[in-house]
Amino acid sequence: MHQIIELFKELLDPKWIIGHGGFYLLILIIFAETGLFVGFFLPGDSLLFIAGFYGKDIVDSLHGTPLFVVMVLVALGGVLGNYVGYWFGRKSGPLLFSRKDTFFFKKKHLYQAKEFFEKYGGGAIFLARFLPIVRTFAPIVAGIVQMDSRRFMIYNLLGSFSWVFSMMSIGYFLGRAFPELEHRLDIIIVILILITTLPVILKLIFGKTKPINPS
C-alpha cells in the first residue's frame, strides 16, 4: 500500500510529469482537468507553472518549437477539455445530480460549481479557470443549464488562454530571472497550491451547499 501511495504522489508531482511526459502529458492533463469530472484532483496550476519554468527544456524536446506556440497548443487543449465538459453536461448533466458519490465523483463539487455559475453568470467560465475543482465542473454545469454555445465558447477561449499564458509566463520569467529557484520549486509549488486552493477548501469546509434543483 505504501508503494502505491508513493507512486500516486509521484504521478501528481508536476516535476515528474514534465520529466516523463513533457509536452504531450501536459496537454492531456490540462484537457482532463478542465473537462472530465475525474480530473478535478490533477495539479493544473502548478503543472503550468513548472512547464513555464522548464520552458526551454520543453522547447528543446520539440526541436525548437517556440514557447509561444507551445502555450497556444496547451491553451487549445484546455479549450477542448472545457467543450467536452460542456457537451457532456448538455447530454447527460441531469443524471449526474442523481448519481451516487464515488472516489472520482463528488456531487457536492457539482453543486458548488452550480452555485458559482449562478453567482457570476457566463463570467464564471472565465473565473473558474483559476479555481481548482471549480474549473473542472463549471463547463459541465454550463451545459446542464443550457448556456448558449457561442457565449460559452467566447468565455472558454478567453479563460483558457488567460490561465495558460499567465501561469506559464510567470514560471518562465521567474526561471530566467532566478534560475537558482530550481532548488526551491517544492516550496513555490506549495505556496501556489495554497493560494489557488485555499478559497475553495474553505468554502468546502465551512460553506453550506444549498439543495439545488438541477432542472
TrEMBL record:
GO cellular component terms, semicolon-separated: plasma membrane
Classification via InterPro entries: DedA-like (IPR032818), VTT_dom (IPR032816)
Residue ranges of the TM segments: 22-55, 67-88, 152-175, 187-206
Limits of the VTT domain: 42-172
Membrane topology classification: Multi-pass membrane protein
Subcellular localization(s) per the UniProt record: Cell membrane
First-listed, main subcellular location of the protein, grouped into a coarse class: membrane
Source organism, top-level taxon: Bacteria
Keywords associated with the record: Cell membrane, Membrane, Transmembrane, Transmembrane helix
Family listed: Belongs to the DedA family.
The name this protein goes by in its record: Membrane-associated protein
Annotated organism of origin: Chitinophaga costaii
